[in-house]
Amino acid sequence: NAGVTQTPKFRILKIGQSMTLQCAQDMNHNYMYWYRQDPGMGLKLIYYSVGAGITDKGEVPNGYNVSRSTTEYFPLRLELAAPSQTSVYFCASSYEFQPQHFGDGTRLSIL
Amino acid sequence: KQEVTQIPAALSVPEGENLVLNCSFTDSAIYNLQWFRQDPGKGLTSLLLIQSSQREQTSGRLNASLDKSSGRSTLYIAASQPGDSATYLCAVRLDRNQFYFGTGTSLTVIP
Predict the structure, then answer these.
(1) pLDDT cut 70: percent of chain B above it
(2) Nearest C-alpha of chain A: how many angstroms from B79?
(3) Which of B44, B102, B103 sits opposite A102 (nearest CB)?
(4) d(Cα A92, Cα A75) in Å, to the nearest integer?
(5) What does the angle CA B14 – CA B88 – CA B32 come to, to the nearest 5 degrees?
(6) pLDDT score recorded for residue A77
(7) Closest Cα in chain B, distance from residue A3 (Å)
(8) In whole angstroms, what is the distance from residue A98 CA to residue A93 CA?
(9) Do A58 and B97 touch (CB under 8 A)?
(10) Which residues 15-74 of A have a C-beta within 8 angstroms of B?
(11) What value does the mean pLDDT take over residues B21-42?
(12) Nearest CA-CA distance, residue B45 and chain A, Å
């Protein structure tokens, strides 16, 4: 039971660098989501997708981009890393309006 | 804007005790409410999802209730065990791209 798999688990970036956070799910869920979790704050939705080829912004999309070419994969791209993007990033998937299944997260530090 | 509050932020109980965790929200026009547990360094695990038309959901020793009119949900844990120690989060969904998470209650069950 793989569920939602996120890679890498940890990463340190320098300011201005770019990277892609990977997310894969094997449950054939149509919905996928990216969240960030900051200390003392609730999770915030960055981007979501309702199916292959369809993505849309969440509450905090600035500084990020996503793509969804297949049902299984939903990568999150940081183009110009900034210290404010230091956070824990979670990917999740679900059927429409059904319980979300989360990955274990990517812990990202930008120095 | 929807605000989700979880009080207390931390709770410590002896093993075997029944306990209630609280979640309050400001906008009653929710689609559903979901309870999660989060273990240190891990992602969120879905416990119960209550649709707006439902009043409660049960799974094993867990029971979640929803009162939309008063903007409250409770998670009841019966006969608590040390393995229940974790952070418990609630999240309300307003629409397909509007999710609001509380900051959680950190539960410690003392053997």
Answers:
(1) 100
(2) 25
(3) B44
(4) 12
(5) 135
(6) 97
(7) 11
(8) 9
(9) yes
(10) 31, 33, 40-45, 48, 50, 56-59
(11) 93
(12) 7
List, in sequence order, every residue forming a beta bridge with B105; answer none if it has no partner: B88
Contacts of B96 in chain A (CB under 8 A): 31, 48, 50, 96-97
Paired tokens of B35: 């309870």
Please give the single-letter amino acid code of residue A73.
Answer: Y
pLDDT value at residue A19 = 96
What secondary structure letter does DSSP report for A73? B
Residue B56 neighbours by CB under 8 Å, 6+ apart = B50, B63, B64, B65, B66
- Please report residues of B whose CB lies closer than 8 A to that of A5: none
Q: Do B43 and A97 touch (CB under 8 A)?
A: no
CA angle A89, B51, B26 (to 5 degrees): 70
| pLDDT value at residue A1 | 67
Distance from CA of B49 to the nearest CA of A (A): 6
B39-83: pLDDT as tens digits: 988 899 999 999 999 999 999 999 999 999 999 999 999 999 999
Name which of A103, A104, A30 is nearest A72 in CA terms: A30
How far apart are alpha carbons A103 and A58 in whole angstroms? 18
Consecutive 10-residue averages of pLDDT for chain A (111 residues): 91 96 96 94 93 94 96 96 96 91 96 93
